[in-house]
Design goal:
This protein is mostly beta strands. The protein has two helices and 19 strands. It folds into two domains: 219 residues, Jelly Rolls (Sandwich); 42 residues, no CATH class. The longest helix has 12 residues.
């Protein structure tokens, strides 16, 4: 049987919409109109608007505090993860909240209301990520999700099977070092995913702010299961075939306010675009770092 997959790419860097295989997303816009529902007052934009970006020109800063601030998508998810077909997703959040454990992602079994299926929480005290699935919580190791850095979250959900998840962040002291985290597999229920929320989902308070960018999800439509999402190559700023002098030039362009859609200029992933990112790329060049 021919294998096909549908990909939902809600690139908060572009906030352009939901790109599926065989059709193109709308022109990139710094707004939240691609999402079904917006709660609170999340701010979309780029560095000029004080919004952190992971990729491209735009990102989303949820407004933090007692009230929830998030975006929700409920129209393009439909029974994700059921029938032996895995639901695979990835997104990035900036770990900038202290004094509270922000919930940055939730998934539900229905477009309206429904049962919570997945919850993702960051703990700034232990600097790790917890995943709550079917009443069971598993966490990555302490110090695997660095405060003040972008955290990459990737998971695979199989209804009536297992949930697995991985995280990645950058060492606070060595830009060449990526810190990987993973959890013990969690047994799931038969519930499927039909609605997702990203942002400061639970409104748990604390100080500081988080950011969300580059949500992507895929599920099997037919044939073999959908393949895992391709890892992002840190340091490959211009998104070409590898890390080279072009990436240093791309960081310089970003410093001057030029953010092409495919670029990831925040090499050290500290939430800002500055000369430290150019130094990060230089360190990778000197170390002979390549994209795997």
């Amino acid at each position: 049987m021919v294998s096909t997959s549908r990909v939902i790419n809600i690139g908060l860097a572009s906030l352009a919409g939901l790109a599926a295989i065989a059709w193109q997303p709308a022109q990139a816009q710094c707004n939240t109109t691609a999402w079904t529902t917006v709660t609170g007052a999340p701010v979309s934009g780029g560095p000029a608007q004080g919004v952190r970006i992971y990729q491209g020109a735009c990102g989303l800063n949820p407004v933090n505090g007692a009230g929830a601030s998030l975006v929700e998508e409920a129209t393009r998810h439909s029974a994700e993860g059921g029938g032996g077909a895995p639901f695979i997703a990835r997104f990035f959040f900036y770990a900038g909240i202290t004094g509270a454990n922000p919930v940055v992602f939730r998934a539900f079994s229905a477009d309206v209301a429904g049962t919570q299926v997945i919850q993702v929480t960051h703990n700034p005290n232990t600097q790790n990520v917890s995943f709550l699935v079917n009443g069971t919580t598993q966490s990555t190791a302490a110090n695997s999700a660095t405060n003040g850095k972008w955290i990459e979250v990737t998971f695979t959900y199989n209804a009536s099977g297992t949930f697995t998840a991985n995280t990645r962040s950058v060492s606070p002291t060595a830009v060449l070092t990526d810190i990987a985290g993973s959890i013990t597999a969690i047994n799931t229920s038969a519930l499927t995913v039909e609605r997702v929320q990203l942002g400061n989902v639970a409104g748990g308070g604390g100080t500081g702010s988080t950011s969300i960018d580059e949500y992507e999800a895929s599920r099997q439509v037919g044939g073999t299961p959908a393949t895992a999402l391709t890892p992002m190559c840190r340091g490959n700023v211009n998104n070409d075939i590898g890390i080279n002098v072009g990436d240093r030039a791309a960081v310089t362009a970003a410093l001057n306010g030029n953010f092409p859609a495919a670029n990831r200029p925040d090499c050290n992933e500290d939430g800002g675009i500055n000369t430290g990112d150019r130094a990060c790329v230089t360190a990778m060049l000197n170390a002979g770092r390549v994209c795997s």
